[in-house]
């Protein structure tokens, strides 16, 4: 009676083992491979008579491949752009090619220089009038006006960078703490997750009227410290860009090794020491990945927000040129698009450098 079950077990065990073993057809080849290799003569690891590659030449070749391939891709793109642009006719004429777009970039820089000269001349004339009024004993004639010329293209770039910086900072300050709490508490994660999934795909164009009405009701000062349009654009950037940081922070915190947390309990670390010594260093790669994604989303969202909120920036510049409808407007818009892309690339590289700097100095 006792031998029957054991025979059944012995009969079934090989069948179960083969379910996770390599294919039976492959096993004879694997078993004969060592014999075949043993029969073959041993080859030396390297032939001393072969010429050895110069490390400097190998490095130069690697740099050439890494540099020439992108340059070739850009050159092909510019050639196709220059060849196909004249065939596309718009209401403002033919689509401008790379040379026409570059010429408008130079013209925008010249306009910035001319505006700076006008501003300097304005303040110089004001200083001259004030000096003459003081010399004549007319203290009431002293004025202190601020130059109010239209913003140039470079001024609008600076404004856009300030706006996205404020929105990104607010998004990071809100997303990282919430993500840490969600990663450490499954209950909080379950409570917040539906809200995140619902609000994450909302377009900035949907947030803009809500934020505009709220800010208009809250900011009632005639001369606020920050312009309403600036605050509106920054808050729209925040609402649309905080989700990648929040989600990645929660995932990184939840994936911390449980043994590491148990060590913290054994050492009786307080919540602040546990957070700074264990949780944050382990979650930094996830947090910085989320921050890079958030910064990219924020820069992309900003252009649409500035178009509709009329906050002086690249978005407003593109919209004004579109409304202008001059013969140079399309080339100026395309130059602005190129600048927007380069700035976005630069911001991403900046976040990568910051991540490498912080990761180099972190330790668990």
From TrEMBL:
Residues 1-54 are annotated as: Disordered. It comes from Aurantiacibacter flavus. The keyword S-adenosyl-L-methionine does not apply. Its main location: membrane. It is found in: Cell membrane. Belongs to the binding-protein-dependent transport system permease family. The chain crosses the membrane at residues 67-85, 164-192, 204-222, 229-251, 286-308, 329-347. PANTHER family: ALKANE SULFONATE ABC TRANSPORTER-RELATED, MEMBRANE SUBUNIT (PTHR30151), NITRATE IMPORT PERMEASE PROTEIN NRTB (PTHR30151:SF7). Keywords: Cell membrane, Membrane, Transmembrane, Transmembrane helix, Transport. Residues 28-45 have a biased composition (Low complexity). InterPro entries: MetI-like, MetI-like_sf. It is a multi-pass membrane protein. Residues 157-351 form the ABC transmembrane type-1 domain. This is ABC transporter permease. PROSITE patterns: ABC_TM1. SUPFAM superfamilies: MetI-like. It comes from the Bacteria.
